[in-house]
Each structure stands twice: as C-alpha cells, then as structure tokens.
Amino acid sequence: MTDLLEQRLTDLEVRFAFVDDMVQTLNTMAANQDRVLFKMRQEFERLRQDLDAIKTGLSHDAREEAPPPHY
C-alpha cells in the first residue's frame, strides 16, 4: 500500500476506536439510567398508592367522627 492509503487506514482505525469507545460509554450510561428510571417508577407507584390511601382516609363522612372535646 502507498503511504497515503496507510495513513488514511490508520486514521479510520483511530476514529473507529474512538466511536467504539463512545458507543460503549453511552451504552453503560443508558443501562444505568434505565435502572434509575425503573427505581423511580417503583417509588412513584408506591407514593401514588400512599396518596390514594390518604385520600380514602380523608374522604370519610365527618358525621362519623366523635365531636371534639369542647362540645
């Protein structure tokens, strides 16, 4: 091969190595974000259930409660 062709091939190999490293890094980041998102969804669902339980507890009829002690 000519020197120019070898240089171009070397440049392409360097670029490929850089792109391959970047893809691996992005893949790791995406996997980490997926785990975080999964945990956040679970926590959100738990909080939503807690809120629903609180709403249910607050929506009862006030007449069912005993009058306050000052009556």
Offer a quick outline of the entry:
This protein is 79% helix and 0% strand. The protein is mainly alpha-helical and 71 residues long. The termini are far apart.
Task: Tell me about this structure.
By secondary structure, this protein is mostly helical. The protein has a domain at 27-53. Helices cover 79% and strands 0% of the residues. It contains one helix and no strands. The chain has one helix at 3-58. It is rod-shaped. The mean pLDDT is 92. InterPro entries: SlyX. It comes from Pseudolysobacter antarcticus. It holds the Pfam family SlyX. This is SlyX family protein.
**How many helical stretches?**
1
Strand content: under 5%
Biggest sheet overview = none
Quaternary state reads single chain
Indicate the percent of residues in helices.
over 70%
Q: What would you call the structural class?
A: mainly alpha
Overall average pLDDT: 92
Overall morphology: rod-shaped
Pfam family, one: SlyX
Protein name: SlyX family protein
Organism: Pseudolysobacter antarcticus
InterPro entries: SlyX
Helix and strand arrangement:
Blueprint: H1 3-58
Which features does this protein show?
SlyX, mainly alpha, 71 residues, 1 helix
